[in-house]
Specification:
Largest sheet: none
Strand content: under 5%
Number of domains: 1
Low-confidence stretches: none
Number of strands: 0
Distance between the termini: 17 Å
Structural class: mainly alpha
Order of helices and strands: HH
Helix content: over 70%
Length: 47
């Protein structure tokens, strides 16, 4: 699983780039969003 915030920053920047591209990339964008959401939930649970 994702451990460091740098990885999440990279994912977010990738997500932003994909959002600016064509809608054919939406599936990948949704997948990345799910990964980030899952990571954030795990971070919250670890507190």
């Amino acid at each position: 699983m994702i451990k460091d915030t740098e990885t999440v920053r990279i994912l977010k920047s990738t997500m932003d780039k994909l959002r600016k591209q064509n809608a054919g990339r939406i599936k990948l964008w949704v997948l990345i969003t799910e990964i980030v959401d899952k990571w954030l939930k795990e971070k919250d649970n670890a507190k």
